[in-house]
Amino acid sequence: MSNEWPLWEIFIRGQHGMAHRHVGSLHAPDADMAIKNARDVYTRRNEGVSIWVVEAARITASSPSDKGPMYDPARSKVYRHPTFFDIPDDVEPM
Amino acid sequence: MYAQMIQSEKTDEDPRALAEFQARIDRGEKIEPKDWMPEGYRRTLIRQIGQHAHSEIVGQLPEGNWITRAPTLERKAILLAKVQDEAGHGLYLYCAAETLGISRDALTEKLLDGSMKYSSIFNYPTLTWADMGAVGWLVDGAAIMNQVPLQRTSFGPYSRAMIRICKEESFHQRQGYDIMMKMANGTPEQRRMAQNALDRFWYPSLMMFGPSDAESVHSAQNMAWKIKINTNDELRQKFVDQTVPQAEYLGLTIPDPDLKWNAETGHYDFSEPDWTEFFDVLKGDGPCNAERMEARRKAWDEGAWVREGLLAHARKKRAAKTAAE
Amino acid sequence: MDPAFEFLCRMGDNTLVLGHRVSEWCGHSPVLEEDIALANTALDLIGQTQLWLGLAAEVEGAGRDADALAMTRDAWDFRNVLLVELPNGDFGRTMMRQCLFDAWHDLVLAELRDSTDDRIAAIADKTSREVAYHLERSRDTVIGLGDGTEESHARMQAALDRLYPYVGELFETDAVDAALAEAGIAPDPGNLRDAYDARITGIMAEATLTIPDSRFAHKGGRDGVRHTEHLGHLLTEMQWLQRAYPGATW
Ligand SMILES: [Fe+2]
Ligand SMILES: [Fe+2]
Ligand SMILES: [Fe+2]
Q1: Which residues of C touch B81 (CB under 8 A)?
Q2: Which CATH superfamily groups domain A7-62?
Q3: Is B313 in Cβ contact with A26 (below 8 Å)?
Q4: Confidence (pTM)
């Protein structure tokens, strides 16, 4: 088993009522630490923001539109880490 | 630059697919991780983004060298925040590289075993407080030259990382120049320190852009793929043109007797750095290569038990939670 | 000696010296996320130092400022507890020290928010939010590493054993404290011990670590009578530029 901390996708909602937005990723041993790390890395601990973290491996992303390429990369990591996408509705706010 | 001498990787896919891919880039579309991409594009990007990330992390060391010696509480806070930003830049870039199917740990191993490089500039020592000024002013200044156009790079995650980085970079160069102004207008000793820092960092800063690549096939391929936006010479010239008046404003002398304004070209003429020295530094024979790598290796090796310990705890917690459900 | 000045130096020197120690990790941490988090903690502590020592200088009224207090006093004039001047050791020891300090810091600031001195109450109010987060983080790390692997557990137990004799000094009470408690400016440190013990006992239990039986306490930092040998070296580094180039502005 790899000893690398899992990758988490970070979503932040600022103070202005906009929806949670994907801001980037980071590594953390678990969800709690991912939230703390997100505060330190992506908000410099601004208060009054809401943070969602989702383990990147749990995300299902749509396929690229063109079926043309039979060249779809088989590397699973690539699928597991779409860096930008709309906020999934079923993500629990945390 | 933070990513120097990036050779483009060969690619031998179906020419039709390659042409389609090129057309997407030419239309200004962003390539996203799940999209089809030539193997060469992917591998070149891993090398470039990885090297860029390594540079940010190794780049913490020369400035980190002065955090505990900063002369005032405010300077200490500013410098610490700046070096912390560089750690953040490394983090964003490693994440961008990870979308290409390589883990941060794997990239780190490649840095530590010497198979991946980082920018030559961070192998120079920081000897006085004025070096904190010179590094911010010149080194971050040179980096910004490259990073601003890279915001338009074709690979989505890289482009987004660069946008975030550029936003944060804006204060780096200014805090460096601010230190230089204080020093240049300070006591005679401070002036001497400021001039000395400029003397030592001028040519290494010019080297950051890499040797001329106007003729390079790698450069041509990387520019077609939009993972390189300008030639090294273009950026170097732009840097010199921008920096010379700033040095004049400080009353400092750029250590190049042949530096002069060329009215015909509308640019400054300047002397090339010593490229032998550059290749020595890249090969590992810079003044601080050994120290930099030792520091990174030590952090990695001595941190292993921490990374493993926290992960083990997280797994136990999850197991206990599952058992309870 | 003005008790208020003395007290403010104790607060400010704690944050100054600990902030310095934590900042030593920048660029050398076990993982990037921790590097960034530790830098945030150090930044908070440096900012808090500016507030505490700034007020100390104001109270002193001798024309010094926070920087002069930080950069030109010698070791015997420093009023930080010994705990914070100890070298970092490994990452585990650094986080253990942080947790032992944060648990106290958080309690003191909660009391200081009700200080009869508005300026002190205002600083406590502002900094207590930062410190609550420091504690959350250091606590989690101590628990995670204590309960992690065999190696991390052993290292954390060693860290606790090494540092615990420096905890007692946080609760020492002297004439300065008595005068401030009397005036309602600051709590009597001794009164915080029970709440502290309850916290630390809970944290260490979760971390599967054993708190040493002995209540022996090294002291001499908060009254400046006898610092460790380490403080002089720390100051040598921290004060170097101001000492080498007196009168220059930076
Ligand atoms: Fe950077
Ligand atoms: Fe920078
Ligand atoms: Fe940089």
Answers
A1: 39, 43
A2: Phenylacetic acid degradation B (3.10.20.520)
A3: no
A4: 0.93
